[in-house]
Specification:
Aminopeptidase; eight-stranded mixed beta sheet; binds zinc ion
Length: 273
Protein backbone atom coordinates (compact mmCIF):
# COMPACT_ATOMS: atom_id res chain seq x y z
CA UNK A 1 0.00 0.00 0.00
CA UNK A 2 1.08 3.55 -0.71
CA UNK A 3 -1.42 5.68 1.16
CA UNK A 4 -1.99 9.40 1.63
CA UNK A 5 0.37 9.46 4.65
CA UNK A 6 3.22 7.92 2.65
CA UNK A 7 2.50 10.51 -0.06
CA UNK A 8 2.70 13.38 2.43
CA UNK A 9 5.99 12.03 3.82
CA UNK A 10 7.42 11.92 0.31
CA UNK A 11 6.33 15.52 -0.32
CA UNK A 12 8.14 16.59 2.87
CA UNK A 13 11.27 14.77 1.75
CA UNK A 14 11.19 16.40 -1.68
CA UNK A 15 10.75 19.82 -0.07
CA UNK A 16 13.58 19.15 2.40
CA UNK A 17 15.81 18.33 -0.56
CA UNK A 18 15.13 21.59 -2.36
CA UNK A 19 12.05 20.98 -4.52
CA UNK A 20 9.23 23.51 -4.47
CA UNK A 21 6.00 22.03 -3.12
CA UNK A 22 2.73 23.93 -3.34
CA UNK A 23 -0.99 23.36 -3.93
CA UNK A 24 -2.58 23.99 -7.32
CA UNK A 25 -6.13 23.96 -5.96
CA UNK A 26 -8.60 21.82 -4.06
CA UNK A 27 -10.54 18.66 -4.74
CA UNK A 28 -14.34 18.38 -4.68
CA UNK A 29 -14.06 17.55 -0.96
CA UNK A 30 -11.73 20.50 -0.33
CA UNK A 31 -8.49 18.56 -0.01
CA UNK A 32 -5.38 20.30 -1.37
CA UNK A 33 -3.89 19.05 -4.66
CA UNK A 34 -0.08 19.21 -4.29
CA UNK A 35 2.42 19.99 -7.02
CA UNK A 36 6.20 19.47 -6.94
CA UNK A 37 8.52 21.64 -9.02
CA UNK A 38 12.19 21.04 -9.83
CA UNK A 39 14.55 22.65 -12.31
CA UNK A 40 14.53 26.13 -13.78
CA UNK A 41 11.50 28.31 -14.53
CA UNK A 42 13.55 29.84 -17.35
CA UNK A 43 13.55 27.88 -20.58
CA UNK A 44 11.47 24.84 -21.46
CA UNK A 45 8.86 23.44 -19.08
CA UNK A 46 7.45 19.90 -18.71
CA UNK A 47 4.28 18.85 -16.90
CA UNK A 48 3.78 15.36 -15.52
CA UNK A 49 0.80 14.07 -13.56
CA UNK A 50 -0.46 10.81 -12.07
CA UNK A 51 -3.43 9.23 -10.31
CA UNK A 52 -6.09 11.11 -12.26
CA UNK A 53 -7.79 7.69 -12.11
CA UNK A 54 -8.23 6.52 -8.52
CA UNK A 55 -7.39 2.83 -8.83
CA UNK A 56 -4.18 3.67 -10.71
CA UNK A 57 -2.56 5.10 -7.55
CA UNK A 58 0.66 3.13 -8.14
CA UNK A 59 1.53 5.94 -10.55
CA UNK A 60 1.91 8.37 -7.61
CA UNK A 61 4.96 6.70 -6.00
CA UNK A 62 6.31 6.20 -9.54
CA UNK A 63 6.32 9.92 -10.41
CA UNK A 64 7.56 10.74 -6.88
CA UNK A 65 10.61 8.52 -7.49
CA UNK A 66 11.11 10.14 -10.90
CA UNK A 67 11.05 13.59 -9.29
CA UNK A 68 13.44 12.57 -6.51
CA UNK A 69 15.96 11.48 -9.15
CA UNK A 70 15.48 14.42 -11.54
CA UNK A 71 18.22 17.04 -11.73
CA UNK A 72 17.93 18.23 -15.32
CA UNK A 73 17.73 21.72 -16.82
CA UNK A 74 14.06 21.88 -17.82
CA UNK A 75 11.47 22.99 -15.32
CA UNK A 76 9.36 19.97 -14.31
CA UNK A 77 5.93 20.50 -12.75
CA UNK A 78 4.62 17.30 -11.23
CA UNK A 79 1.10 16.74 -9.89
CA UNK A 80 1.56 13.28 -8.33
CA UNK A 81 -2.05 12.73 -7.24
CA UNK A 82 -4.64 14.72 -9.20
CA UNK A 83 -7.57 12.71 -7.85
CA UNK A 84 -6.82 12.78 -4.11
CA UNK A 85 -10.45 12.10 -3.09
CA UNK A 86 -10.74 9.20 -5.52
CA UNK A 87 -7.50 7.57 -4.37
CA UNK A 88 -8.58 7.84 -0.72
CA UNK A 89 -12.01 6.39 -1.56
CA UNK A 90 -10.37 3.57 -3.47
CA UNK A 91 -7.96 2.74 -0.62
CA UNK A 92 -10.00 3.54 2.49
CA UNK A 93 -13.58 3.15 1.30
CA UNK A 94 -16.49 5.21 2.58
CA UNK A 95 -14.68 6.08 5.83
CA UNK A 96 -12.79 8.66 3.73
CA UNK A 97 -16.05 10.45 2.86
CA UNK A 98 -17.02 13.07 5.47
CA UNK A 99 -20.61 13.59 4.36
CA UNK A 100 -23.45 11.10 5.02
CA UNK A 101 -25.45 12.11 1.95
CA UNK A 102 -22.42 11.68 -0.25
CA UNK A 103 -21.72 8.25 1.27
CA UNK A 104 -25.23 7.13 0.34
CA UNK A 105 -24.84 8.49 -3.18
CA UNK A 106 -21.46 6.78 -3.71
CA UNK A 107 -22.72 3.47 -2.33
CA UNK A 108 -25.62 3.65 -4.78
CA UNK A 109 -23.31 4.50 -7.71
CA UNK A 110 -21.09 1.57 -6.68
CA UNK A 111 -24.08 -0.80 -6.89
CA UNK A 112 -24.31 -1.18 -3.14
CA UNK A 113 -20.76 -2.45 -2.74
CA UNK A 114 -18.45 -0.99 -0.09
CA UNK A 115 -15.45 -2.23 -2.08
CA UNK A 116 -14.19 0.80 -4.00
CA UNK A 117 -10.85 -0.74 -5.00
CA UNK A 118 -11.72 -0.56 -8.71
CA UNK A 119 -13.08 3.02 -8.57
CA UNK A 120 -11.64 5.37 -11.22
CA UNK A 121 -13.71 8.54 -10.79
CA UNK A 122 -13.53 11.44 -8.32
CA UNK A 123 -15.71 11.81 -5.21
CA UNK A 124 -18.78 12.78 -7.19
CA UNK A 125 -18.45 9.94 -9.64
CA UNK A 126 -17.07 11.94 -12.58
CA UNK A 127 -14.23 10.31 -14.54
CA UNK A 128 -11.69 13.14 -14.72
CA UNK A 129 -10.01 11.76 -17.81
CA UNK A 130 -13.13 12.04 -19.96
CA UNK A 131 -14.14 15.44 -18.54
CA UNK A 132 -11.75 17.67 -20.53
CA UNK A 133 -12.77 19.87 -23.43
CA UNK A 134 -11.58 17.76 -26.38
CA UNK A 135 -14.41 16.09 -28.31
CA UNK A 136 -16.09 15.88 -24.91
CA UNK A 137 -18.82 13.24 -24.76
CA UNK A 138 -17.90 11.67 -28.11
CA UNK A 139 -16.09 8.62 -26.71
CA UNK A 140 -17.52 5.17 -27.35
CA UNK A 141 -17.39 4.24 -23.63
CA UNK A 142 -18.65 7.58 -22.29
CA UNK A 143 -21.68 7.56 -20.00
CA UNK A 144 -23.91 10.49 -19.01
CA UNK A 145 -24.75 9.45 -15.45
CA UNK A 146 -22.59 9.14 -12.30
CA UNK A 147 -20.56 5.92 -12.40
CA UNK A 148 -17.34 4.37 -11.04
CA UNK A 149 -15.78 5.11 -14.46
CA UNK A 150 -16.50 6.86 -17.79
CA UNK A 151 -18.99 9.52 -16.60
CA UNK A 152 -18.18 12.70 -18.55
CA UNK A 153 -19.68 15.16 -16.02
CA UNK A 154 -22.27 17.90 -16.56
CA UNK A 155 -20.03 19.94 -18.87
CA UNK A 156 -16.34 19.99 -19.91
CA UNK A 157 -14.01 20.89 -17.03
CA UNK A 158 -16.87 20.72 -14.53
CA UNK A 159 -14.55 19.23 -11.89
CA UNK A 160 -12.26 21.26 -9.59
CA UNK A 161 -9.38 18.77 -9.95
CA UNK A 162 -9.42 19.35 -13.71
CA UNK A 163 -9.75 23.14 -13.57
CA UNK A 164 -6.74 23.19 -11.22
CA UNK A 165 -4.70 21.05 -13.64
CA UNK A 166 -5.83 23.17 -16.59
CA UNK A 167 -4.87 26.41 -14.79
CA UNK A 168 -1.40 25.03 -13.99
CA UNK A 169 -0.95 23.97 -17.62
CA UNK A 170 -2.00 27.37 -18.94
CA UNK A 171 0.30 29.14 -16.49
CA UNK A 172 3.48 27.13 -17.08
CA UNK A 173 2.95 26.48 -20.83
CA UNK A 174 4.68 23.10 -20.90
CA UNK A 175 6.02 21.89 -24.25
CA UNK A 176 5.80 18.22 -23.19
CA UNK A 177 3.17 16.61 -20.94
CA UNK A 178 3.23 13.08 -19.55
CA UNK A 179 0.06 11.56 -18.10
CA UNK A 180 0.75 8.43 -16.06
CA UNK A 181 -1.93 5.74 -15.92
CA UNK A 182 -2.13 1.98 -15.27
CA UNK A 183 -2.11 -0.65 -16.79
CA UNK A 184 -0.95 -2.23 -20.06
CA UNK A 185 2.71 -1.27 -20.65
CA UNK A 186 1.83 0.89 -23.62
CA UNK A 187 2.03 4.56 -24.63
CA UNK A 188 -0.85 6.39 -26.29
CA UNK A 189 0.00 9.38 -28.44
CA UNK A 190 -1.89 11.78 -30.70
CA UNK A 191 -5.43 13.11 -30.60
CA UNK A 192 -7.97 13.13 -33.41
CA UNK A 193 -5.89 13.94 -36.50
CA UNK A 194 -3.15 15.71 -34.49
CA UNK A 195 0.19 13.97 -33.88
CA UNK A 196 2.51 16.84 -32.96
CA UNK A 197 5.83 15.07 -32.22
CA UNK A 198 6.03 11.51 -33.53
CA UNK A 199 9.85 11.56 -33.09
CA UNK A 200 9.53 12.54 -29.42
CA UNK A 201 6.95 9.83 -28.82
CA UNK A 202 9.21 7.27 -30.49
CA UNK A 203 12.17 8.29 -28.33
CA UNK A 204 10.23 7.68 -25.12
CA UNK A 205 8.77 4.46 -26.49
CA UNK A 206 12.25 3.20 -27.38
CA UNK A 207 13.78 3.95 -24.02
CA UNK A 208 10.92 2.49 -21.94
CA UNK A 209 10.17 -0.43 -24.25
CA UNK A 210 6.46 0.49 -24.16
CA UNK A 211 5.00 0.20 -27.67
CA UNK A 212 3.32 3.25 -29.15
CA UNK A 213 -0.35 3.39 -30.10
CA UNK A 214 -2.28 6.17 -31.80
CA UNK A 215 -5.49 7.08 -30.04
CA UNK A 216 -7.73 8.51 -32.68
CA UNK A 217 -10.77 7.35 -30.69
CA UNK A 218 -9.70 8.83 -27.33
CA UNK A 219 -11.78 11.85 -26.24
CA UNK A 220 -12.07 14.12 -23.23
CA UNK A 221 -8.73 13.14 -21.72
CA UNK A 222 -6.10 15.54 -20.40
CA UNK A 223 -3.70 14.43 -23.13
CA UNK A 224 -6.41 15.01 -25.75
CA UNK A 225 -7.13 18.52 -24.47
CA UNK A 226 -3.41 19.34 -24.17
CA UNK A 227 -2.63 18.25 -27.75
CA UNK A 228 -5.71 20.02 -29.14
CA UNK A 229 -4.87 23.23 -27.28
CA UNK A 230 -1.07 23.41 -27.42
CA UNK A 231 -0.24 21.12 -30.38
CA UNK A 232 2.83 19.79 -28.57
CA UNK A 233 3.88 16.32 -27.41
CA UNK A 234 1.38 14.86 -24.94
CA UNK A 235 1.64 11.20 -23.98
CA UNK A 236 -0.48 8.87 -21.88
CA UNK A 237 1.87 6.27 -20.40
CA UNK A 238 0.16 3.12 -19.11
CA UNK A 239 2.43 1.29 -16.67
CA UNK A 240 2.15 -2.19 -15.16
CA UNK A 241 1.25 -5.65 -16.41
CA UNK A 242 -2.38 -6.17 -17.43
CA UNK A 243 -2.63 -9.44 -15.51
CA UNK A 244 -1.73 -7.90 -12.13
CA UNK A 245 -4.62 -6.56 -10.03
CA UNK A 246 -4.56 -2.76 -9.53
CA UNK A 247 -3.93 -3.02 -5.78
CA UNK A 248 -1.01 -5.40 -6.36
CA UNK A 249 0.81 -3.24 -8.92
CA UNK A 250 2.65 -1.60 -6.02
CA UNK A 251 4.56 -4.90 -5.55
CA UNK A 252 6.10 -4.33 -8.99
CA UNK A 253 6.97 -0.66 -8.38
CA UNK A 254 10.78 -1.15 -8.54
CA UNK A 255 10.50 -2.69 -12.02
CA UNK A 256 8.11 0.06 -13.16
CA UNK A 257 10.49 2.74 -11.83
CA UNK A 258 13.43 1.12 -13.60
CA UNK A 259 11.57 1.24 -16.91
CA UNK A 260 10.71 4.91 -16.51
CA UNK A 261 13.88 6.22 -14.90
CA UNK A 262 15.15 8.06 -18.00
CA UNK A 263 11.80 9.45 -19.13
CA UNK A 264 12.13 12.93 -17.59
CA UNK A 265 15.61 13.46 -19.01
CA UNK A 266 14.39 12.32 -22.43
CA UNK A 267 11.35 14.61 -22.16
CA UNK A 268 13.72 17.49 -21.39
CA UNK A 269 15.82 16.65 -24.44
CA UNK A 270 12.68 16.62 -26.59
CA UNK A 271 11.52 19.90 -25.02
CA UNK A 272 14.80 21.58 -25.84
CA UNK A 273 14.51 20.42 -29.45
ZN1 LIG B 1 -6.22 5.72 -16.33
Amino acid sequence: MYDIKAFQEDLKELYANGAQVFDIGYTYLGRPIPCVFKGSEEGKQILIHASIHAREWVTTPLVIEMMKAYNGKCGVWCVPMVNVDGVMLCQEGLSSIPDEGLKTFLLDVNNGSEDFSLWKANARAVDLNVNCNALWGKGAQNVTYPAPANYIGMFPFSEPENTALRALTERVQPVVTLSYHARGNVIYKAFSCLDPSPEGAKLISDLTGYPLLDTYESTGGYKDWYIATFQQLGLTIEVGDDDIPYDKLIDTLPAICERNKDVLNAACEIAQG
